[in-house]
Amino acid sequence: MLHLSAAVDQPSAYDAGSHVELARLAERGGLDFVTLGDTFGRPGPDALAVLSRVAPATGRIGLVPTVTTTHTEPFHVQAAVATLDWVSRGRAGWRIDVSTTEGEARLFGRRHAAPADELWREAGEVADVAARLWDSWEDDAEIRDVATGRFIDRDKLHYVDFTGAGFSVKGPSIVPRPPQGHPVRVVDATEGHARRTAARYADVALVRAASPAQAAAVRDELRSAAAEFGRDPRALRVLASLLVDLGDGEHAAEPGHGGGGPRQTAQGPLYRGGPVDLAELIATWHTDGIVDGFHLTPTEPRRDLERLVNGTVALLQHRGLFRTFYPGSTLREHLGLARPANQYAVTGGTS
């Protein structure tokens, strides 16, 4: 199964309406999910809040905001992501990221910037405790019995009692278990510091690779590490991340693009050409088993996403390589991922 996703970042957009428009366009093409980036170092609306507004205006597409784990409270992060999963009826994801700059650290005034490897270890702990908190309510913990006045079965609420290197969380969560059990966790695993966290905790790993060989090498490394952590490596989806500039219409891709692979730039691998050659690149990398799919960032959001959906995606659908409808309703179903069992219900944890 080929997986396709797209970024809907618009640096100058401060209203949710333009993001709704792009998300609906991506949904029309059957894309698995859209992402919206966020950092502490740039002005603009909060990505998670924007996609919470997009949620009721869409019906099937997954919604994946960037949520930084550095300087933030893990308890609040997991509750916000769980809330997005409820608002979207099971379509939420969470792109995990860290904050490495001293300028961003000064915004909070709690601590100085730390090395990237330390921050990614902390991000892994946040991902771990988030899953525990999502499981701290069993699926049937809510009773809502008006006659007896009982709202919750307290025997089905669980303390997580987590202690990490920089924080501790008792729990349980204040939000019932999300519709997906665990909202989908996404990590950009291009840089080495992030790969261990991606292999252990991510459902989707993004890799900015300029060649099939580079993409395949990172995918093999991630899946091997996932197996060492006791995970089924086939449950980790690895997507190649490309910037796409489709402004050249139907002209052939520039040298170094097309089926031969994108061009490396300071911003990451860039494809510049037409929708037809982009479809060929995607088809070749996927059918050769290089990656499970692609995460595409349009250089001109409205123009390129429209050409992506109406051109590239339509061609892939015509060739039978990409779906023409959503077979399910949740992001996990789009990605072919099982809904996780509740770790406390399975182990008989106590509250």
Describe this protein's structure.
- This protein is α/β, with parallel strands linked by helices and 351 residues long.
- It is 37% helix and 18% strand.
- It contains eleven helices and 14 strands.
- The chain has helices spanning 16-28, 47-54, 74-87, 102-108, 116-134, 192-201, 212-228, 275-287, 301-318, 331-335, 343-347; strands spanning 3-7, 33-36, 62-68, 93-97, 142-145, 150-152, 162-163, 168-169, 184-188, 204-207, 237-245, 263-265, 268-272, 293-298.
- The strands form three sheets. Strands 1-2-3-4-9-10-11-14 form an eight-stranded parallel beta barrel, surrounded by eight helices. A two-stranded antiparallel sheet has the order 5-6.
- A hairpin with a 2-residue loop joins strand 12 and strand 13.
- It is globular, with a radius of gyration of 20 Å.
Distance between the termini: 40 Å
Number of strands: 14
What is Rg? 20 Å
Major sheet attributes: 8 strands, parallel, barrel
> What is the multimeric organization of the chains shown?
single chain
Give helix % range: 25-40%
